[in-house]
Amino acid sequence: MSKIKQRLSQNMFVKNYKRMWPYIKPYWFPGLMSLLITIPIGSLDAVIALSLKPYMDLVMVEKSVQTAWYIPLAIITFTCIQGGLTYAANYLNTWVGAKITNLLKLDLYKKMLDFETNFFNTKNSGDIIFMFNNNADLACAGLLTNLKTFVQKLFTAISLIAVLFYNSWQLAFLCVAILIGAFLPMSSLRKKVDSVMSQSIAADAALLTAYNESYSGNKTVIAYNLSEHQKGKFNSVLDGVFRLKIKMLQRTRWVTPVMHVILSIGIGLSIWFGSFLILEGKISAGNFVSFLTALVMLYTPMKSIGSNYNSVLMSFMAIDRVFDILNAKPAITNKPNAKEMPATHKLIEFKNLGFEYNQGVPILKNINLTVKQGETIALVGNSGGGKTTLVSLLPRFYDVTSGQICIDGTDIRDFTLHSLRQNIGVVFQDNFLFAGTIRENIMLGNKDASEEELQKAVKMAYLDKFIASLKDGLDTEIGERGILLSGGQKQRVAIARAFLKNAPILVLDEATSALDNKAESVVQKAIENLMQDKTVFVIAHRLSTIRNASKIVVINNGEIVEMGTHKDLLNRECGAYKTLYDMQFKSDDKTMKS
User: Which residues face 535 on adjacent strands?
Assistant: First the structure.
């Protein structure tokens, strides 16, 4: 049974290093040097123990001090060499480790960007940070540091065991047998760690999420006096992390004291048996002191090997998680023979389209819609009816469950994701702006745009007067998520970005619903400029803004219930659109009167 466990452990070791080899390969030489340097570091530990035999025999027994003068000098010299080599090994190990970690993090980041929207919908921010950042740190730090430690301790053990056999083969066999027995408890460690580790990861992710929520939602916390509530919530998360750490300690830290006891028995037996051998004249006092020193030097680091083995297990488990992520296939990918979508189109068709976020719970049912080039399609209806979901299917934020979306007769799943999304511009209700300057955020629409094109986009988005009022103009820093801009200003930056992209298909997802009347008026003008010569899908909360749409589509409970122009739909007595329009008109009328 122990052989099977040993084989499994070896396979686990080999498997993980094979998987990590592509990341180690670019830095294999300094990595190898950091390991080779540990060989003399470990081997030199035997010098002190070996030197004690002649010292004891010459000084303590023969009382010859003059012939032993070189022994202290040799110990000091070898210790200085060992110290220099230790610094070099640590430097190289840290350098290589940081490089490998960065490569791994880069690949994980690339992989994260490949995942579909629904992947992020089912994860919180703490999960994402732990999956794509912390796992890489755990994998590389434990892997390299502990490999160096093991190589060093291996050669320390080999050199010290050689000293043991040099001084007394009888005592050496006894002590090596006890040393092997001390390692047996480690064989069951991984099984005990697995279940707790997954819970610990979830708890640590919850901790990161708590920090992120308090940062992002700081205004809500202040406005609703939620400080005490958040403190209590955070404290409960900390309690959970604490309990899991204690559970992990209970399942792993027993190894070190057990090894300590077993190895102490070995030292005790060695003293007893060694005393007997001295009295029998089979070994000298120098042999015994040298042997005992080597044994203590061998056993002392071995007592902490349980902690190192635990770190290696953590590292290997992190590597498993990393490669599970890297090998995972996103739900939305390019087909093997996907083709480029042309920059022009004549017809967009939604054919018998159905969609479900969760199996058996339809969000959209039997959607049939034909849109010609240059038309503006307005989507209206009750909240949660599926309007945003429908337009999210066009750039393949999600894939249809049934039916298809075709552009000029070609299913959009047959186009490459890049070319499809390059031909679709999107302006959301809450547009995400990146930390940086206004210029940098607008230029994301087209990084190759000229200064003239940039200035035109700024003017068409009605940003020119605002930017002229800023000291640094387009190079003004806007903070994380554009926090230093108002809602209307953020929307106009997003519109300018869409102008630069100049995609033939445009999706406007309630782009003005969060703005006040004054801001909405300016943003609406910018949107009208943006809509020129494009096929437009617009979700509007204010029906007065879509009167001129080519076609208005009313979606309620996931189905199209009405379709037509503003005038046609208003003429339908008791129609869904007319009901919505009358309700909003009366509401707006009351607001104006008040």
Answer: 505
